[in-house]
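Before going further, it is useful to explain how the protein records used in this thesis are read. An example of such a record is reproduced below.

***
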Amino acid sequence: MKRFIQSPAFIIIIALVILNFLDGDFSDPMGWLIQKLILLPGIVIGLSFHEFAHGIVSYALGDPTPKLQGRLTINPAAHMDPFGFVALLFAGFGWGIPVQINPGYYKHRRRDELLVSLAGVVMNFIIAMIFALGLRFLFMQNPTWLMSSMGDIVTQILMSVVSINIVLMIFNLFPIPPLDGFGIITELFNLRKYDWYYKIYDKGFLILLALILLGVTDKVLGPAVSAVLGWIINSIIF
């Protein structure tokens, strides 16, 4: 932790918090708190199931490491990084504890590492679809109740689970280390054979934070999330 606090990554995250403050995100503390409480279930579910998916697929492919480290569970305590969770709430960018794998156990390394990389984003999509179907079921069974104060809160929470999981899915597909998208293109195109691969990989987290700070990721993330959410809302929920 001490090394991280002294690193450029910590400085960039603090900069993100300051930018959010200047944008007025904390001008209404009670409103901010209520919004975060509504988002909290989606954040916890999304991160926990994402990391669980990586672990269970790696274990199914012959790697005992996730099981030995207690990661074959959906218990958030096994997957939530305290600092990453706080950063997510205040900076709008955070992370869970990455599942450690040992590719030496895989029979087909490139194929199996590709499957493990895909597992997290596929799980986020599945979670989004399950909660979207749950919301559709509630609309079909008792639309009047959903218009009440309690029903409105339930609707917001369920919709936040859907939206947050779509955000996690698309964000993790960015081809930047340490995100899953980089793992996917690494195995598809066998990037390890290139000299620049390890240089990019080592600096990936800083590159990612810089792109977030400059607003580059938002330009891709926003339209992509809107498109997928629009499809889910129009095709699944209503």
